Each structure stands twice: as structure tokens, then as C-alpha cells.
Amino acid sequence: MSIDIQKIISTHEKTINGKKVLFVPKSHSDKLLVLLSAHNQKNNYFLLRTFLENQTDNLLFLTDTNNTWYLDNDKGKTYAEIISSYSNNFPEGNTCIFGSSMAGYAAIHFALKNNLHCLACNPQVSIELSLDYGWHELNKNMLRTINNGGAVNLQELAEQQSNHTGVIFIIHGHAPIDIANVELILEATPNHRKLITHTIDSDDHAMPFGRDIEKVNAALDLIFAFHKFNLPIGATQSNIKILKDNRHHNNRHGIKRYYKNWKGSDQQSFAWNRRHFLQNPGIYFCRDIGLYNSSGEKTGTPFIFDGSELWQLKSAMPCDKIHDFSADEVPYGPVSNNQAIGNAWFRAPDGECLLHSDGGGHFTAKFITGKNCYFNISLNHFLDSGFKNGHEISCMIDVEVERGSITLSLGAHGISGYYQANKIIESSGRHTLVFHADTVNNKHRDALFARIYFLSDGKSKSIKINSIAFAHGNLPTVEIFESTKND
User: Fold this and answer.
1) 439-473 confidence digits (pLDDT tens)
2) pLDDT tens-digit map of 391-417
3) What are the structural domain ranges in the chain?
4) Topology given in CATH for the domain delimited by 321-485
5) Is the pLDDT of residue 301 over 90?
6) What percent of the chain has pLDDT over 90?
7) SS3 letters across the chain
8) What is the spatial distance between Cα 265 and Cα 196, in angstroms, rounded to a whole number?
9) How much is the pLDDT for 350?
10) How far is CA 287 from CA 133, 154, 169, 300, in A?
11) What's this model's pTM, rounded to 2 decimal places?
């Protein structure tokens, strides 16, 4: 079916409270599907042509050009009011919001706020928690949103909105950012909730439906059918009613029940990705960071919390677990492709780039035609010191960068080939990166490696590598890495 997209936009697009809104009605339908564009989509409406060519319901398209998780500067109030102005024209229970990732966060947010249904793919639930798992561009926008004071923790909102009668359908894969966030929403225990979770066997954060509208419609049918299902609660004994009243009171006032106290009742232990949720000052024990001991387990690290920031109380591991590498060994002069320096080597293909060492860890990189120019450091020595599949490797680099950026990578060669974690470095200073090695091919020359990509942004530059250090463990911040090194 051929449709004139521009004509539809010119006919139906409006600007409401500074936001572009596209509402496309469908005759004989009493349902509304709200479609939210994902991160970095600018003014592009979410799968516009695909949904219009297969339209079965009324469609409302919204975008967030500023990448604020649809929170804007008012914690989402403007967007929520726009959605309500349309959903109020349809029968109760007939509106569903659909979004993925950033838009999945907004779909859950507005569904809870406006008592609507939502279909959310790989959503963020806590923007603060997601910072530990996001990539460069996503993290920049998440941090800006947090600093603007607009972040809303959807786990907490789910418990506050105890009268929500809509259906929340979450589809997620196994990317760390998705697993960590879905765990939060599963831990919420509001008085009433209809929640569907579908875990797919994928490690991709991308929206899983692609352009398969039939699958989307099948998911919507499941949502609307589940909405009609109700299990009435009969009369209860007085002592049970007291327990219920107590639970309702606690939920209204944000009081955590004992079995939900993830910090632990004795040691006040916590997981690193939950540090943002600490509220009370005191001494806490982070159980999942630090270096590995002789049994192959992380011993954790104690912290003092002052109510606003965390800092390390003392190191949990001996410094002999840290391995430093000096770029001072690279001699003065042009660097050739596959030039070896100890346990490191360079990739600088002729005709693609020029790389020159000025000695003392100082390099000049000139972009010509290609981007595949990097410094590779073998970390295979960790394989002889208790490293196991599933362990983590950490890196801290002190670097000076003039113009553009470099990319720091930690990676491995596993059962299916190369995979790695990357961090774009745009400013001089000390930076850390943690890599989780699921599988490692011990016989490969790149079983474990670190790389510094000089020209990944296509810009010539000067780079001064002051120091690089590696650790067999999870040392996620400069402060933690430094205190462990210098203990």
C-alpha cells in the first residue's frame, strides 16, 4: 500500500506546548497506540512508514529531540499531559505506549503516571544505574539528564503507583544494561500489578521487533487480553487485613520491607550498580568489586558513605595484583606495522596512517585514509595467575589527548572470535575501563588484550601516554584503582 508520508505529516502534525505531535486517526478503531522515538532519532517518528502502511489503530507519534528520556525540564509533565489529552478520548484500558531503550523508559514512566498500558523493549529503569553499562553517547545524555535533576527511578515510581491497573509488557535480552534494569522493575512490589516479562535469547540492545508489525500487534493483543483478566480477592480474616493495611502504608511512604533490604541487615553490603540508591550515612561493604583472591572470588571493598558521595575506606587487595605497562619503551621514530615492543605491538598499515613516536610515551598520529591504527598490549600473563572464564579485567590509563578522541579497549578472543569493551576518551586525565571476559581462548595470541585506537574518530592528533595499569578484578573508578595500587 502506497502512502504519501509528507501529506500525512502536513495534514496531521501539530505543535503542542513546544512539542511536535503527529496524531493519525483510524476510523472504526477505539484503541490508541502511542509511539515514542528512541535515543538520537531527532525529529524522526518511530517506524512511521511501517506503522502507517499497516495501520489498524489510532496512532500518536512523539519524539524527544533533546534526548532527555522524555523528562525534559519538568520530569516529563509536558509529555504526560500531551498523552493524556489524546488517551482521554478513548475508553479506559484502550491506550498502549510503545518504546525501546530510552523510549522504553518513557513508555513505562507515562504508563505508570497516566494509568495506561505499555510495551517496552530493553528499557532503562534507573538512569543512574544505567550509567555503569551505557556507551559513550548514551552516557553523555544520561549524565546531562541526571544533572538537570529530572531523573525518575521507575522502580520507586512503580511502588508509589499502587493503583495502576494497566499492563506493563517488558521484552528484554541479555545485554548487561538490560538485565540490570529489568531486575529493578521485578524487585518492585506494588499493591497491584500486571507485569509480563519476555526474555529473549539475544545479547543485542536493539529493538527486537524490527519492522514486524504482526508481532507488535500480537504483543498488543496479549496486553489487552491480560487487562481483562482479573482475580477477585474475597473477604479476609482481620489479622490478614492488618498485614495488608500495614503493607499499603509502607508502600505509600516508601518504607522497605525487610526481605527487600538489598543492603543486608548485618554487613550493610551492596552491589556496585546499586550504589546510587544508598541513602543513610554509614560504613558499607561493596561485595562485587575489588581484585580476585586465590579462590577466584572478589573479596569486595569497604566504603564510607556520607549521604552524598562514596569513597573507599581501604584497599581490599595487595598491590602485586596490579600490572603496569610503560610506553617509554617505544623508541623515537616512525612506528611500523606489527612493530613489537615487549608484550605489545602496533597496527599502523602503510598508506592508511602515519604514527610517530617521540619517545617517553608521546605519539603523533596522522590520519590519511583508514582508521585501523592502534597500540595492542597483550594481557595473557593474567592467564597464568588464576584467571578464569567469567572474570573481569580492569585498566587505568593516564593520557593526554590533543584534538579529537582516542578509544580505549579491553577484549578477548573467545569461542566465537573477538569481543571487547570500549571507552571513548575525549579529555586528558586518568580514565578506567572494566571488561567482563565470558570466554577466553587461552591458545590465541590475543587471548586477553588492551588496545588504544589512535584514529578511531578520523582526526590527526598528539597523544601522550603517561601510564597504563591493568588489574585482574573489577576496579571501576580512578579512586578505587589508585587506592588499591598504592595500598
Assistant:
1) 899 999 899 999 999 999 999 999 999 989 898 98
2) 999 999 999 998 899 999 999 999 889
3) 5-228, 261-317, 321-485
4) Jelly Rolls (2.60.120)
5) no
6) 61
7) CCCCHHHHHHHHEEEECCEEEEEECCCCCCCEEEEECCCCCCCCCCCHHHHHHCCCCEEEEECCCCCCCCCCCCCCHHHHHHHHHHHCCCCCCCEEEEEECHHHHHHHHHHHHHCCEEEEECCCCCHHHHCCCCCHHHHHHHHHHHHCCCCCCHHHHHHHCCCCCCEEEEEECCCHHHHHHHHHHHHCCCCCCEEEEEECCCCCCCCCCCCCHHHHHHHHHHHHHHHHCCCCCCCCCHHHHHHHHHHHHHHHCCCCCHHHCCCCCCCCEECHHHHHHCCCCEEEEECCCEEECCCCCECCEEEEECCCCEEECCCCCCHHHEEEECHHHCCCEECCCCCEECCEEEECCCCCEEEEECCCCEEEEEECCCCCCEEEEECHHHHHCCCCCCCEEEEEEEEEEECCCEEEEEEEEECCEEEEEEEEECCCEEEEEEEECCCCCCCCCCCEEEEEECCCCCCCEEEEEEEEEEECEECCCHHHHHHHHCC
8) 31
9) 82
10) 18, 25, 32, 4
11) 0.86
Residue 399 identity: V
Q: Work out the mean pLDDT of the chain and round it to a whole number.
A: 88
Cell of 41: 532519532
Pairing of strands 32-36, 95-100: parallel
User: Domain 5-228 in CATH: superfamily?
Assistant: Alpha/Beta hydrolase fold, catalytic domain (3.40.50.1820)
The 10s digit of each residue's pLDDT in 265-297 is 345 788 898 888 888 888 888 888 888 888 888
Asked whether 323 and 471 are in contact (CB, 8 A), the reply is yes
Amino acid at 486: N
Q: Rounded to an integer, what distance in angstroms lies between the CA atom of residue 30 and that of residue 94?
A: 7
Tell me how far apart the alpha carbons of residues 427 and 406 are, in angstroms, rounded to a whole number: 9
**What grid cell was written down for 48?**
512511521
**Using an 8 Å Cβ cutoff, are 438 and 390 in contact?**
yes
Residue with cell 534494569: 181
Residue 340 corresponds to which cell in the numbers above?
613489537
Q: What is the dihedral of CA 376, 381, 387, 389, to 10 degrees?
A: 40
